[in-house]
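This follows on from our talk about sequence and fold. Can you supply me with one protein entry, sequence and fold together? Could you add the entry underneath, on a fresh line?
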Amino acid sequence: MRKWLYIFAMCVLWLPSVAAKELPCDAETNPEICRFLSRYLTEISQWNNPDLSLYQKLRDDKFIILDGDIRRIALMDSTTAFSLNRYDNKAYEAIWTNGKEVLLHVAFPIQFELILGQSQYELEPQLQTLIRKAEDKEVEWKMPQLQPIPNEPGYFHSSPIMHYQVPSFTNEVYFYQSGNSMLPVMDSLHVDYALSNLFLMPVEGYNPPLQVQQSIYGFSKLHYTISLRQWIHYCLAENLTCFAAIEEETDETWKVLIIAENVDLAYNHIVSVWVPKSIFKNHQTTLLVRINAFVPTHNVKDLYEQYREKTTTKQY
């Protein structure tokens, strides 16, 4: 494999410079991956860095060409077939073929810094801007499938239920039947249902300001204010799956832990929110928020052990 990569690298270095080409790809389903493949393959086809060999760059990025040839990008057109395979949370495999001929077959790790072309430290300060711009994308929240909650007539939860490692952290939202309508549960008698709804879906009449403190590289903090609706729009626009659970309760507040996961790119935003118990009377009361952004998924696993005893597991 090393010898093959070396020969490949030498061949590529002799390629003439070519303009970026939008490769055949399933951009509607995997937009970030398709943008990465077009950018990265164009970059390596033009590689000319005297301080870093192409062989070393591919090795550093763990980007492997399994079959085909980078020069065959020129043969790709609207008839070229494309497939993308995912192997757990470890790697993607992309293949372009014309009939039975493999033009290019590559594999690369599921690593958001590689795919986005920016480090975690570069991405962290951008979060505020990304949240504010998300509303422009106008991505709508879609009503999920609902199932009755056992022993609670007239109440329903979303299905299927997704858990994030600990059973208490789910993506569930909750409704009750009122005549022919399904309305979100938002009352103090069902606090766990209501707080999940508050952060996992847009709820009419609830759009409180979020006073954010975000930790960034270098033990620094960013402070800014956004609205809850902006945050929810951002999660929808970035295709983040959100999980929520009550972590702690005092006489005056509930502390809610939220995990916003990007499955495709393997990063998470870890969010703690202090919710005053007056929220159901004063829907616009300010919420204090702490965010750690763009945390690699493999770094999050240990987080849950400390919350396992604090959160309450729902059982149906």
